[in-house]
Amino acid sequence: MQEDRIRVAPNTVAYADRENHKLVLEFAIPGAPTDTIDVKILEDSVHLIAPARDIEYVSALALGWPVKPDKAEATYEHGLLRIEVPFKDPMEGAVRIAIKAGGAETKAKTIEGERK
Predict the structure, then answer these.
(1) What is the number of other CB atoms lying within 10 angstroms of the CB of residue 113?
(2) pLDDT at residue 111 above 70?
(3) Other Cβ atoms closer than 10 A to 58
(4) Closest CA to 73 of 63, 86, 83, 88
(5) How far is CA 70 from CA 74, 87, 100, in A?
(6) Domains of the chain, with CATH numbers?
(7) How many CB atoms lie within 10 A of CB 35?
(8) pLDDT band for position 4 (cuts 50, 70, 90)
(9) Are 25 and 12 contacting, i.e. CB atoms less than 8 angstroms apart?
(10) If 0-12 CB within 10 Å is exposed, 13-18 middle and 19+ buried, where does residue 61 land?
(11) Nearest-CA neighbor of 6 among 40, 43, 31?
């Protein structure tokens, strides 16, 4: 039988570590056992559920810049979950398009107005 828990948004801090080109997210979730924390990251969002005693921490964040979720690293110490994830280069995965030269050169046309 599932316990009834009050859902609470954890205190959250998110900032760009420009020197290391990473996004850092910190969630205050005291009392949540490490093995019950469920955090999922996509390129543009983070979702967290962390049950702790009689409360359940829940958070969903939209990210303002794409990240590389498969490179995320998380640590949990003294009730603070810290996630570091590198930013994705906006041109990563871009495809270079070959440009073909046109057959005939295009010449500008001059349109003459009415003379009075």
Answers:
(1) 5
(2) no
(3) 15
(4) 83
(5) 12, 11, 37
(6) 6-86 (2.60.40.790)
(7) 5
(8) confident
(9) yes
(10) middle
(11) 31
Residue 43 CB neighbours (<10 A) = 13
* Look-up of token digits 């003459």: 112
* 89: exposed, middle or buried (Cβ count in 10 Å: 0-12, 13-18, 19+): exposed
Overall average pLDDT of the 95-103 stretch = 88
DSSP letter (8 states) at residue 93: T
- Residue carrying the six token digits 């996509």: 42
Q: First-to-last CA distance in the chain?
A: 94
Residue for token digits 């998110």? 14
What does the block give as tokens for 12? Answer: 């959250």
At residue 57, does pLDDT exceed 50?
A: yes
